[in-house]
Amino acid sequence: MTTTNKKAVFFDRDGTLNVDIAYLHRLEDFVWIEGAKEAIKYVNDKGYLAILVTNQSGVARGFYPEEDIQAVYDWMNAELAKIGAHLDALFYCPHHPQGKILQYTKACNCRKPATGMVDEACCHFHINRVKSFLVGDSDNDMECARRAGLTGIYYDGGNLLTRIKEYL
Ligand SMILES: [Mg+2]
Ligand SMILES: [Zn+2]
């Protein structure tokens, strides 16, 4: 077996794992999507890496600092640990072309549908794209999957585990 046999499920965050309230950054506002934790556990148990790839332009817009994204991720993993599940890695894009905070205001190559986050993860973990998926609730997610050579799983409500099981 070569390292390139690693496979992954990339998860969008807002609207896919948590109810999208726009610019979520406080733990008390986080509400899991139905079946989301179970979907991550299913992916873990099937031998896939579970990787979060999330656009967080709220940083560029000055709504919250980068540290909040990591804090939410750490909290998610603490919650997931209670059912024996975990996310393997976090990749986020803090940029936006029309931001308020200068250092984050630019056209980048990581904001989905650009593939920068997926590319970095694939390089770091030696992921085989053909065997991998990206699940998300937006056209940008599906476009990112297409450009990155992943199979897109479009989530438009209902139980996320049920949806994932249609593919893997
Ligand atoms: Mg989303
Ligand atoms: Zn970016």
UniProtKB/TrEMBL annotation:
Stabilizes the phosphoryl group, annotated site positions: 54, 111-112
One record GO biological process: carbohydrate metabolic process
Gene Ontology terms for molecular function: metal ion binding; phosphatase activity
Alphabetized UniProt keyword annotations: Carbohydrate metabolism, Cytoplasm, Hydrolase, Magnesium, Metal-binding, Zinc
Cofactor(s) named in the record: Mg(2+); Zn(2+)
Pathway per the UniProt entry: Nucleotide-sugar biosynthesis; GDP-D-glycero-alpha-D-manno-heptose biosynthesis; GDP-D-glycero-alpha-D-manno-heptose from D-glycero-alpha-D-manno-heptose 7-phosphate: step 2/3
UniProt GO cellular component terms: cytoplasm
Main localization, broad class: cytoplasm
Compartments reported by the entry: Cytoplasm
Reactions mediated catalytically: D-glycero-alpha-D-manno-heptose 1,7-bisphosphate + H2O = D-glycero-alpha-D-manno-heptose 1-phosphate + phosphate
Signal peptide, first to last residue: none
Pfam families membership: Hydrolase_like
Binding residues annotated for Mg(2+), in chain numbering: 12, 14, 137
Residues reported in the UniProt entry to bind Zn(2+): 93, 95, 108, 110
Active-site residue numbers: 12, 14
Record EC number: 3.1.3.-
Entries under InterPro entries matching the protein: HAD-like_sf, HAD-SF_hydro_IIIA, HAD_sf, Heptose_bisP_phosphatase, Histidinol-phos
Family indicated by similarity: Belongs to the gmhB family.
NCBIfam families: GmhB_yaeD, HAD-SF-IIIA, Histidinol-ppas
UniProt-recorded name of the protein: D,D-heptose 1,7-bisphosphate phosphatase
Organism: Selenomonas ruminantium
